[in-house]
């Protein structure tokens, strides 16, 4: 295996030459040249966290915040440009103990690993799946302990001798592996039989989701919050629907004529939170709803008052996770695109959850089904929504909420296991 990896490293410069003909690669080079790292301690830090993109930052945020709030020296090493906004916010918040460096993929070559110029560390955390050879080499040579967080084999099952050998080799670089689900825990265990590697499963986002929803500080700071509470309370939970991280295609759920009739009669309170919050995309959704005969009011980012209508399209960021608890039905977008968005955010607070068929990349769906098999309703087409509306069950929600509380109570012991 090491001979094969060495061959791949030798061939990499030739791949780079070919890739220069592609505009996306040239854009990446420009980004890598323009981004400025911030290294506060060039010799050694307490923790290094590698995250691929914004989603991985969310997965590991509880660990990041604990380390930073404990005044530990932390380095975030990131891959994707999508993480920049969130990372810059963290940089301003933790100016004295947070270093940041971009993983410069275009600078990798067979003779020099630029990561070796980064500080040594006591703990190296990798979130999920950017198993670049140079990154694994940095972890092996520059870290005292290596931990893989949110590990999953979903979409890359080790079938065949070569794949089994490959994944066993990659995963054996870590001293401890925290899997996304029990299923991943068991499967990865079969790949690492006989190796002295601690394997467990825990979703660190769950305590964060529970705390955010209970606190709801962003939502309660909104000047329209009291009006929203008063308006939504006029409807029973079984007649409240929220569309979280929705796209244009998701609005086809309003095509059902029976559903349209109930909406026109004012029987439903519906809140739409688009995945893209810019005004132009919200206008696109507004126009589509209008074409379907749906009258909708827009809640602007700077709105002081809540709209008077019972169908509301929101441009307000940072409140979606806190809103789910007010709705009996939650429809999650993305399932008719690349992949369904966050299922866990509504899972512990909304009785019935609906999504499209694209779930192959979502470990959250797997985890939700492990906790409560009947919790999710998968639609093959958006317009099926009305025909598949479930009677909401508070007993199932209590079961899920108890699981979330249990995870929150375990958080401190899980921190101690890692640190």
Order of helices and strands: HHEHEHEEHEHEHEHHHEHEHEEHEHEHEH
Number of domains: 2
Name the quaternary structure: single chain
How would you write the strand order of the largest sheet? Answer: 3-2-1-4-5-6-7
What is the overall number of helices?
16
Straight-line distance between termini? 32 Å
Structural class: alpha/beta
CATH fold-level name of the largest domain:
Rossmann fold
Silhouette:
globular
Describe this structure in words.
With 419 residues, the protein is of the alpha/beta class. It contains 16 helices and 14 strands. It has 2 domains: 2-207 and 412-418, 3-Deoxy-D-manno-octulosonic-acid transferase, N-terminal domain (Rossmann fold); 211-404, Glycogen Phosphorylase B (Rossmann fold, 3-Layer(aba) Sandwich). The strands form 2 sheets. A 7-stranded parallel sheet has the order 3-2-1-4-5-6-7. Strands 10-11-9-8-12-13-14 form a 7-stranded parallel sheet, sandwiched between helices. Helix 8 (205-215) crosses helix 16 (394-418). The protein is globular and about 70 Å long. The two termini are 32 Å apart.
List keywords for this structure.
Rossmann fold; alpha/beta; 419 residues; 7-stranded parallel β-sheet; globular
Write the layout of secondary structure elements.
Elements: H1 2-19, H2 23-34, E1 44-51, H3 54-69, E2 74-78, H4 84-93, E3 98-102, E4 120-127, H5 133-142, E5 143-151, H6 161-171, E6 176-179, H7 182-191, E7 198-201, H8 205-215, H9 217-221, H10 225-232, E8 240-246, H11 257-264, E9 269-274, H12 279-291, E10 297-299, E11 311-314, H13 320-323, E12 329-332, H14 344-347, E13 352-355, H15 363-371, E14 376-378, H16 394-418
Parallel strand pairs: 1-2, 1-4, 2-3, 4-5, 5-6, 6-7, 8-9, 8-12, 9-11, 10-11, 12-13, 13-14
